[in-house]
Amino acid sequence: MLEIHDLTHAEDGVTHLDHVSARLAPGTLTTILGRTGAGKTSLLRTIAGLLVPDSGEVSLDGQGWSRLPPWKRPTAMVTQQFINYPHLSTLDNVAFPLVRKGLRWPAARDSARAMLDRVGLSAMVGRRPSELSGGQQQRVAIARALVKQAPVLLLDEPFVNLDYKLREDLREELVDMLRNESGLIVLYASTEPREALSLGDRILLMAEGRLLDDGEPQQVFGAPATIEAARVISDPPINILPLTVGAHVAAGPFGAQDAGDLIRGLAPGEYRLGLRAADLRPGGRHVARVVLSEVSGSETVTHLDLAGFALVMHEKSVVTHPPGAEIAVDANLARGFIYGADGTLLRREAPHGQD
Amino acid sequence: MYRQKYLFLTPGLIALVAIILFPLLFTIRVSFSGWDVYNPGLSWKGGQNFSRLMADSRYWAALGRLSVMAVGTVLIQYVLGFALALLVWRDVIARRFFRVLFLVPMMTTPVIMSVIWRTIFHESLGPLNPIIRGLGLPGVPWLSDPVWAFVAVMLVEIWQWTPFMFLLLLAGLLSLPSEPYLAARIDGAGPVRTFFSVTFPGLAAISVGAIVIRLIEASKILDTVYVMTSGGPGESTETASYYIYIRGLRDFQIGYSAALSIIYLVIMIVALTIIAKLLVRFLVRPAP
Amino acid sequence: MTHQPLDPEPRAPVSRTLKLALKYGFILFWSAFVVFPFLWALTTSFKDANGVTNGATWLPWLQYQPSTQGWASLFGGPGGTNIVRPYLNSIWVTLGASVVSITLGTLAAYGLSRFTFRFLFFRNADITFFFISQRIMPPIVLAIPFFLMLRALGLLDSLAGLILVYVALLMPIAVWVMVDFFNSIPRGLDEMAWMDGCDPITTFFRVILPNAVPGLVVAGMFCVIFGWNDFFFAFTLTFTQTQLLPVSIVALNSSVTPWWALSASALVSIAPLVLLAFVVERFLSKGGLAGAVR
User: Fold this and answer.
1) What is the CATH code for C84-255?
2) Between C86 and which of A347, B255, C110, C248 could a Cys-Cys bridge form, CB atoms 3.0 to 4.6 Å apart?
């Protein structure tokens, strides 16, 4: 059990970690999801010992690590940059950590060769890292991290600098490989909600150094605990609309007849409504003007202007909406999340699926 | 946690403090003493050496001469070094041969070359005057005339150290990105405009560095003068370092020469700091 | 589609020819200026007293009768001094001081590049500046205290004493080159080594040093140039036992006119470093110096 207890770190007046705590069990892959600058890298570096926190502690199985320098911690890490030892061959790069652990070079090279075989680089053992492609270099880095069999594996957006197709392939391979390693505690930092949701057994949601939410993907995605969490985990962005309940009911541009069951049982007052882009759909009574429409793969994301409210609509098909065009839209407000004025989720009971 | 870091820094730091800082502090102490041939030792004379120094016109003349020599040679070295670097930068036959050749003088020992130059400047036996006479000009009393001796020393300094400017500026030129040149060509800029809007701004930082480094080295001129002219004829080529050398190691007025050294060092640091600041302000500015 | 050259060169061919002539004219003029003293020294080294006193001549056999006495004097012939001992002394002092300076300088530079230090109000930048600023110190300011210091240590007129002094002279250069070089190596590499179980010392020797060879070569080059070419300290801190090359050649300068001996020994003294020019050029043309000089 890896325990992160109340980590805080600030530098030059910027808070990178703000009282972050979590307990991570062996055999789980936890993704840390957050935008750039959310503190993901700081958290991983603190666990690795590369960053000394202002307060708080990391411990493994009850043993505190605060006095343990990076080179004595049982952690392995893969970073965004493809970092390998330029002066060593691919084989020796992977053998190096084992030699540092006390193995002799021949034995270390045997293990390294087996590991390179697993990442599909057996033909490249004699080459220098500079003679490899970016994807191959990152495979070497992964092999070097795995070969040590450290109980804690830290992956800091390992594929972000690769092109899209390669990224998908490598991610699949990594998941396959990790499945064979039992009892590992894996932390995977990511900026992409989809990656985090599909990869992890668990998600730590971060923003501005704070832990926004912590739980299983279904739970964290299905009912975001705060507006902030909803914003971080929703891709395309979630629509946040002012919701007024009283004699007059208004959810942004939408009125009482759209709201339906949503507001049943709500005391009169001001709320905010989180509405996923997928819960807007074409057709219906409202006429919106298209601001911008982008097709990505087999999906279409359209930015709309409806009565002065900026809305985002997500369609799971390829549609052409020319800018300036007027289209009819409808909102499935029943699937919205209601947040209080302080931004916390008021009701979690609605069965929101991940789709 | 990173206590090992001191293992990296301290050996070098201790060596430098012991070898340089300690002697420097000692020099400061000596400058308040009357240490000379008759009274060797750390007596206390207060500021006497310094008041004597203020009235020592030979010292101030040497400092003035040094400024002219240092600024003059460094500027000429900079212009020539820049020109040479541009010439062998690209589009030139036997580029690498000329690059090596232009570097050679800075590799040679200044005093040894000065010994050779002294034979070259020799009025009757040296090869320079026959060449000048061959051009129909009168021979030059190189090392026996105050002005010409000064010119001769400067000439040797230029020969020796233009390669240093050449080296730094060529390294700078070779590291310039090529996109701005493409942009300038698309804009239809001629070679002169390209130079002032792309090349020169790109080399401004390295230029300041090169000029400051050379000024530092040039302010120490001593070897060349010692070998070629011994400060003469008269005192016409006597630089600050050389005058201090005469007072300290020839006349053995250790206390007084220590005072001269300290003031010389202070003036040098102040002047070079001002020059470096001015150069940075006027040369290194954002490209238009 | 026709290809439109970016630079159509609309100028008249005459001005182009003129520009080329000026360009190569200047290159050739400067080349002549550069080789002039070497050629003069070379021809003078084959003269004897007659050849020298007959005025400036260049061509052997045609203008003067060549003699090998200048070259013989390298080993103590007439008019010269045996420069074998000074030569060896120079090699020892230069190499010794360079090795010590680079060792200490590289370690210090690595520390300054990677860790945060604080002594009183001195931070990393101040300490780096302290190292490099030693180059501003004029030799004459240090000469007298050095003299007294070496005398106190009993190291006057000894190789060890000179090496000690030269370390102070050369270490700033090594620090200057190596701090810049280490700053160009990503810190991520060090951190990877730490993650792989190397403490900072092991990281330095096993990972960083093997990747720092280009920087070490540049630093070594500069140290050798400045060490080999120094005159003043060798001159003030030695007498007869451990003369270095420049000192023994300058000593010839004061005697009557043994120009042949002087020229021959000058040429053999500067020869090794002239060869270094080829190394420097190789680095320069491969772009290896760009990082080092910034």
Assistant:
1) 1.10.3720.10
2) C248
